[in-house]
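Changelog-adjacent note: as of this version, every example in the card shows the full chain rather than a window. The one below runs 450 residues end to end.
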Amino acid sequence: MKSNKVHIISLGCPKNMVDAEVMAALISKSGYNITPLAHEADVILINTCAFILPAKEESIEEILRAAEGKKGKESSCSRLIVTGCLPQRYGRILEHELPEVDLFIGVGEVPNITQHLDSLIFKEARGPRSIISKPSFLMDARYSRLLTTPLHTAYLKIAEGCSNRCSYCVIPVIRGRSRSRQIDDILTEAEILVSGGVKEIIITAQDTTAYGRDLKGKPTLNDILRKLATIRGIQWIRLLYTHPAGLTDDILKTIADEERICNYIDIPIQHIDDEILAAMKRRSKSDLISKTLQKARELIPGVALRTSIIVGFPGETRTKFNRLLSFVREIRFDQLGVFTYSREEGTKAASYPSRISEREKETRKQVIMEEQAVVSYTINQSLIGSTQEVLIEEKSEMSDFPYIGRCRRQAPDIDGITYVKGKNLTIGKIIPCTITGANDYDLFAEVVTP
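Full-length structure tokens:
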């Protein structure tokens, strides 16, 4: 029997989280014990992100922290494994940079994790420290997952990789070209998740609107949405990572028509200046972005729009930045995230001239976020007095608002939360609440009494 305990840490995006959940299930089925406590683990597995510099730095810091803990007297850890995007991107270079790590495994080795774990623990002869294969793995419903999200919420990854080739992005290099799952397989996994108590399905991929372009018959994201909405037990369906060039009227109309689909769209625009968008290789111009956002609000009353933008991209003059700032003021996104441009080796943009200082990038980021805080506060204040469905997620430490939840306009981890006043509420239940207060990002609510 395998009595070894394994502690898993997953960094980065929800797509990476799904990989970690698949590995956790495979490891558990193989006879290992998954433990939430790092200090009692025999093996620590860190599933890393390497998208941009801050993500790489976080991954390295977590690895070094685990390595230091591995030396501690109170720790039982004897093996440290690093998986995911960092080893996939840098390969054997990491062996010399991080000698504390026993094994590096790339993203294509997710389904083989238990074999690698067995070899590391039970074989006397040491094998290679790096196992980096082609990033061709595409999960399907045959793979179980040990959810790391609350049991009522789960991410559903409908595709892997990306074929957009944006000039600043290394994802196609790390994850490979876009590969879509079959619709029937996606629906099967959704039904499995619902049977386990999941009420909220969050659709994710590198670009969800690119779904199906590589498949026979060219199924679409709209087809998935329509069919998911028929599955009994799903109460909320949330859509992330849509590309403005692929967000069709059909998709918008389906979101408006289907009660179970949240009136919420994550639509990263990255910028609004046409010259910057062209340099980014974004496949969308300012006119298309504006029309898409306008159409979304016309077809979906009350839709919550979230976006992500990049400041400090090479060639972003003060005039181009001000154009972006004006657009943020004009459009009034409900939620907005800002990244400072990260010059990544292996990307086309890494060779662009007209670079901007890190200090100036941070200044521009702060200007956008301060502007967005005002917009978010105004929008949230306008919700006071309205009735919103709230998914109760956990207890809070506030005596006046003893529960924490999210309404349809709030995605987990990236948006605000809703504090709820009520007694004996059930975690995982969706209940109507009246919004009674708001700040820049969070809402305060009281349960509607019958």
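Structural remarks: The longest helix spans residues 358-382.
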